Amino acid sequence: MRKQRSFCLVVLMMLILGLMVTGCAKKPAVSQAAVSAADSEAMGPAESLASGASTGDNIMEGRTSGPMLPVYFDFDSALIRADQVKRIETNADFLKKNPETKIRIEGNCDPRGTRDYNLALGERRALSARKYLVNLGVEASRMSTVSWGAEKLLLYGHDELSWAQNRRDDFVIIK
Length: 175
What we know:
With 175 residues, the chain is an alpha+beta fold. The chain has one domain: CATH 3.30.1330.60. It has six helices and four strands. It has a four-stranded mixed sheet. Strand 2 (102-108), helix 5 (115-135) and strand 3 (143-149) form a beta-alpha-beta unit. The radius of gyration is 23 Å and the shape is rod-shaped.
C-alpha cells in the first residue's frame, strides 16, 4: 500500500512538473517603447487600414474625418494629455479656418469596465475635448457630443496597444 501511494505521488509530481515546464503559450512581450509610441503617435495610415478604418470619406485615423486627428486618453481618464495637445490644436485650427463645418465629438473607451461606466467615461472624454476646443476659440454651437463607450472598438486585442487605440475621441464632420 505504501509503495502504491509513493508511486502515485511520484506520478503526480511528474505531471505537475511537466505542466509547469510546458505551461501555456506565451504572448510576445510588448515593450514600453511600443506602448508609448502607440499612445503618443496613435496609428498611422497603414495601421489604420489594417484595423478596418477606411480611406474613403476622407477618414484618416480611427473614425476621425480628415484633416482632423483623434485624441487619445490614458486609462480611466478624461484629461487631455500633454502629448495630445498638438492634435486638438490641429483640430481647432481646421475648425477656425472652416467656420461652416460642424462636428460630432465621439467619446470611446477600451473594453475594460462595465457598459454604463464606459458610456459615462466616453461622455466625459467627449465633453473634455469640446471644452478644450471652445477654449481655443471654436464656437460651441458647431459641436455635438456622443459617447460610444466600448461599442465601437477599432482593435479587439486584449493588450495595451489595442486598448490604447480604443481610448480616444473621434472628430467627425457632420454633413
